[in-house]
Amino acid sequence: MSLAPRAVLVHRTTEYEELVARHGTHGQAAFFLASRGRDLEEVAERHRRTRRASAEVTAAIPSTWRQTRVERGDLDRFLFGPEDVVVVVGQDGLVANVAKYLAGQPVVGIDTDPGRNPGVLVRHRPQDVGELLPLVLGGGAGVSELTMVEVVADDTQRLVALNEIYLGAAGHQTVRYRLGLEGDGGVAEAQASSGVLVGTGTGATGWIRSVWQERGGDGLELPDPSERRLLWFVREAWPSPATGTSLVAGELSAARRLTLTVESERLIAFGDGIESDAVELTWGQRVTVGVCEERLRLVG
Does the keyword section mention Isomerase (predicted)? Predict the structure, then answer.
């Protein structure tokens, strides 16, 4: 007997909730912000809009469906099922946060604050949910398959990200390593830099784009979100008698991998800005970075 479809509503704690949790009461949070020239009402209104949107989405889920909720901080402990439809209620970044925990489940992004969010990944409004979910289940909703990036270490540690992966020192200080490309006969360059950034076409709307613009494009074209191609950049490579700067930018097709061998006591790799969920690496370890086989299936 097959299970009924399940809507998994992914949300995050609002700024208002974080402030009240930190300061104890609404009044104390208001006093704290007022002392810094801010008005709590602006934050509280965004909280109310988010909660109204969440309630509207919940009410629109078909009565024959199962449903559950998961907060962003609990994603690494939540088990998604193959029958799930993931409904992300919040900002674009929340879609990136959930992407690495999925295995092909469709994702519906709901924008709770149109005009404030770019709406790149949260493409729908709460009022769309009632009509959209049956279409998703029946295969009638358009789905974009977005490319993801992965890093794999020689001890089998693996990390996946939707936007970009950063490899470097915690705190972004100088780190030493050897950088190369698979298929180049083992040729690698010793480098000292503030890290390496490898990003997707989705990431080309954020951190990767800012580095790309700063470099004047480096003769590289930004990939589309669905294109199985990545861009990589070395940040602030330092030339010295022992370290070079000839490999500082490039692109990776689906078949190519960037390789990095650690020559520092500690190096980390994290995705989509979540440094708390990082792969820890040390002297002599080798990692490869490239296009991930799994893709994010985004509705709309």
Answer: no
End-to-end CA distance of the chain: 31
Q: Which run of H or of E encompasses 98?
A: helix 92-99
Burial 180-198 (b: 16+ CB within 10 A, else e): bbeeeeeebbebbbbbbbb
Amino acid found at 110: I
Nearest to 106 by CA among 224, 199, 1, 6: 6
pTM: 0.89
Structure tokens of 140?
């009638």
Would you say 20 and 29 are in contact if contact means Cβ atoms under 8 Å apart?
yes
Question: Which helix H or strand E contains 145, and what residues bound it?
Answer: strand 143-153
What letter does residue 214 receive in the DSSP assignment? H
What is the chain's percent helix, strand, coil content, to nearest 5?
25, 35, 40
Backbone region of residue 97 per phi and psi (left: phi > 0; alpha: psi in -120 to 50; beta: other values):
alpha
More confident: 71 or 117: 71
Tokens of 269: 């790799």
Q: What's the pLDDT tens digit per position in 48-69?
A: 999 999 999 999 999 999 999 9
Q: Which residues pair with 295 in a beta bridge?
A: 147
Residue 62 CA to chain centroid, in angstroms?
29
CA distance 186 to 41: 59
Task: Say which residues have a Cβ less than 8 Å from residue 152's Cβ, sequence separation at least 6.
Answer: 158, 287, 288, 289
Place of tokens 């470099």: 215
Residue 30, phi-psi category: left (phi > 0), alpha (psi -120 to 50), beta (remainder): alpha
Q: Is 164 exposed, middle or buried (0-12, 13-18, 19+ CB in 10 A)?
A: buried
Each residue's pLDDT tens digit, 123-157: 999 999 999 999 999 888 899 999 999 999 999 99
Mean pLDDT of 160-181: 93
